[in-house]
Each structure stands twice: as C-alpha cells, then as structure tokens.
Design goal:
The chain is 60% helix and 20% strand. By secondary structure, it is an alpha+beta fold. The protein has a four-stranded antiparallel beta sheet.
Length: 186
C-alpha cells in the first residue's frame, strides 16, 4: 500500500508540473493561472483518462484514480504575496483542499476497523485488495476540505516562471510532506 500511495503522490506532482500555464506574468499571477489550469485539467476527460491509465499501469484501481482526480478538483489556491530574488521567487498561498495527511490517517483507522469487522485472516488476495481499495476511496471521498497556508517556489526560465518540484509544492497540493507521509506509513 505504501508503494501505491507513493505512486499516487508522484503522479499528482507530475500532473501539476505538466498542466501548468505559460506566458510572461509575475510569479503571483503565474501561480493563480497555474492552479486554475491544473484544476481545469483535472476536470477534463482527457486528463482523467490519462491519470486513470497511468494509475492502472501501476496496479491502482480506477476507483482510487477517480477519487484522487476528484480530490484535486476541490483544490483552491489563492496567492497572498510574492518575493522575487533575481531568477527565483516564492509565492505565499492560502490553500483550500483535502489534506492527504488526513486521508492517510483516516484510511489507516478505517482499514483497521474494517479488517476487525471482517474475517481478514481468511480473505483471498482479491478480497483483501478490494477491501483496501474500498477503504481508500471512502477515505478520500469523505475527507473534509481544509484551509492551510504554504509556499510555492518558482524559477525563471527565459521570460516565464516555472514551478519548482519540491517538498513545499507537495505540501501545497496535498497538505503533506514526503517525510510526513513516510512516517505515517511506517
């Protein structure tokens, strides 16, 4: 399961980096347009098919992929201020979205409860996989939208700004750092 969650996080970050916008705008405007484009992209049928195909290649059930797409569709990011230092910039943001930290916490608790209710020791591999998938999807779908703050780092490429793929971006998008995720899944 840890591998699947890591795959999900990597895929989500990749999608955010691929769907971003261009144009010569200031960092704050770029971040606004970037997240609007990403949100639009996750709502498009083509993006959903690409994500679902990628996840199914990694043994991630379509139901889980669809739940992740819906989770990303709830994300709202509002830049509050920017700081430009030559070819680098930071944009502070307020985020409304589902926290993957909450999802993982709920998933672990819900999975334990479901395993205790069912005869987990006598389940087939397929039944176990279905239980895990069902609990993951429910945990994602039932997770509340939370408000948090974060920082988006950018670098300049020509006249355009580009988002830096780092732990800070992961925390903005998912509300969890890679280190937090690893400690939750131990």
């Amino acid at each position: 399961m840890k591998k699947k969650i890591s795959i999900l996080m990597s895929l989500i970050l990749s999608i955010f980096l691929l769907l971003g916008c261009g144009g010569s705008k200031g960092p704050k405007e770029y971040v606004t347009d970037y997240f609007n484009d990403v949100k639009s992209g996750t709502e498009s049928k083509i993006a959903q098919q690409m994500i679902a195909a990628q996840l199914s290649d990694e043994d991630m059930p379509k139901e889980a992929a669809d739940a992740m797409i819906n989770m990303l569709g709830k994300l709202e990011v509002s830049p509050t201020d920017e700081k430009i230092d030559g070819e680098k910039a930071t944009v502070n943001v307020t985020i409304k979205g589902v926290s993957f930290k909450t999802v993982i916490g709920n998933f672990m608790g819900n999975l334990m409860a479901e395993a205790m209710k069912s005869d987990a020791a006598n389940m087939t591999d397929e039944e176990t996989e279905k239980l895990v998938t069902d609990v993951l999807v429910k945990s994602i779908n039932d997770a509340p939208v939370e408000e948090r703050t974060g920082v988006v780092n950018l670098t300049k490429s020509g006249d355009d700004w580009k988002v830096v793929e780092d732990d800070s971006l992961l925390e903005v998008i998912l509300g969890i750092t890679e280190a937090d995720m690893n400690s939750l899944l131990k």
